[in-house]
Specification:
123 residues; 6 helices; single chain; four-stranded mixed β-sheet; alpha+beta
Amino acid sequence: MKKILQIGLILSLFTSIHTLSAHDLKGAVASDDRSPKNIIRDNHRNPLETLSFFGLESDMVIVELSPGGGWYTEILANFIHYPGTLIAAHFSLDSDRAYYKRSRSNFEKKNGKRLYVWKSRNC
């Protein structure tokens, strides 16, 4: 059970965020930077309505818990800009659970090595 509670925090400080043109939520959802595979899922997930409900602002510090493959991360990375920060809290790098390792690995492959990793001891 201890390993289930351990997660690594990935500070997703994408180096290209400041160069992206989408600083409004509607523009971030409609961005050409998003993968076609994820855009297809929008019809059933309603990202604009869902994220609007939470009242997000582009200069907030946003923590995305267990980002999976990064569907929301892709939108939020286009939306959040300085002085805001996107923090993706994912599974620990040294987890002994295969699913956690695979999920974290897939997230990192998709989002590249533009991530800063901070490992929490008590999470």
